[in-house]
Amino acid sequence: MKRKLALAIMMSFTTVGLYSAPIVVQAEEVKVNDALAAVVASDFRTDTNKLRDTYRNPAQTLAFFDVKANQTVIELWPGGGWYAEILAPYLAKNGQYVAANFETKPAEDTRQTEYFKAAGLKFEKWVEDNKATVGNVQFVTLSPPEKFKLGEDNSADHVLTFRNLHNWAMKGQLEGVFNAAYAVLKEGGSFGVVEHRANIGMAAESGYMEQNQMVELAKKAGFELLASSEVNANPKDTKDYPKGVWTLPPRLAMGDQDKQKYLDIGESDRMTLKFIKKAK
User: Fold this and answer.
1) C-alpha distances in Å from residue 149, one per residue of 10, 140, 141
2) What are phi and psi of 233, to 5 degrees?
3) What is the per-residue pLDDT for 18?
4) Average pLDDT score over the chain
5) What is the pLDDT of residues 39-60, one digit of tens each?
6) Which residues pair with 75 in a beta bridge?
7) HEC string of the chain?
């Protein structure tokens, strides 16, 4: 179902390799192409994942990022594959889905490396088990601080990340990830970001990030903000919970305590930002 959006879009146009001042454009709706709509609605997706669509708006989000079926798209840390379940089949025939996966061969065994290893291997198995639908998925390893490189420089049309920025920020690795995204993208390629949106002054340990700080960090890496969308906004999210963003669904870190209260709020308020790699 189409959803009305309020977008604040800053569009830049190239003239002899230079970007002019951004133009602010108001748009009422993002158009979802038929191929993307069909994948989002397909029976390949699990019912559990589809239940999250009301909060994550995958068709509108990917249309906002202008992801086309014949492009090369790198997803950073696909985790359990919520977006991979859409992106990989969508790109299988004419495009290329690249999973920047967890480290599955850690040099040392710690609680964290074992967690990432298990999750990464589970995702690889899902890809192998569903090869007929997801096609020839490629893998790179994103394992800061040792492994940042996402592929050949200037090779990807889009780099996408969904609700991951706080993980890298808490370890001081966020700038390296932004730089890696910039390096792998073609000129004119885009970096699409969905992240839990903080109130000013909140710490990254809450799971929320300040939107203006993310914009400034992207600019430092060389990006220009092309567009922002409120498609994944949630005004019910007060962001003042005992266990940070994880208090809300789907994690529900408080268990049964005030469970219905948090279910009624729904998933977090999220920024949705589209950055472009400027020509130099």
Assistant:
1) 29, 8, 8
2) -75, 150
3) 36
4) 90
5) 999 999 999 999 999 999 999 9
6) 99, 160
7) CCCCCCEEEEECCEECCEECCCEEEEECCCCCCHHHHHHHHCCCCCHHHHCCHHHHCHHHHHHHCCCCCCCEEEEECCCCCCCHHHHHHHHCCCCEEEEEECCCCCCCCCHHHHHHHHHHHHHHHHHHHCHHHHCCCEEEECECCCECCCCCCCCEEEEEEECCHHHHHCCCCHHHHHHHHHHHEEEEEEEEEEEEECCCCCCHHHCCECHHHHHHHHHHHCEEEEEEECCCCCCCCCCCCCCHHHHCCCCCCCCCCCHHHHHHHCCCCEEEEEEEECCC
Helix axes 84-91, 111-129, angle to 10 degrees: 40
Q: Taking residues 58-67, what's their average pLDDT?
A: 95
Please list, in sequence order, all residues whose beta carbon lies within 8 angstroms of the beta carbon of residue 259, skipping any fewer than 6 positions away.
Answer: 252
Of 154, 166, 155, 159, which is closest to residue 190 (Cα–Cα)?
A: 159
Q: Which tens digits make up the pLDDT trace of 134-179?
A: 999 999 999 999 999 999 999 999 999 999 999 999 999 999 999 9
Residue 154: left (phi > 0), alpha (psi -120 to 50), or beta? left
Rounded CA Rg of the chain: 18
Contact at 8 Å (CB) between 272 and 194? yes
Instruction: Read off the tokens for 166.
Output: 């706080």
Q: Is 252 left (phi over 0), alpha (psi -120 to 50) or beta?
A: left
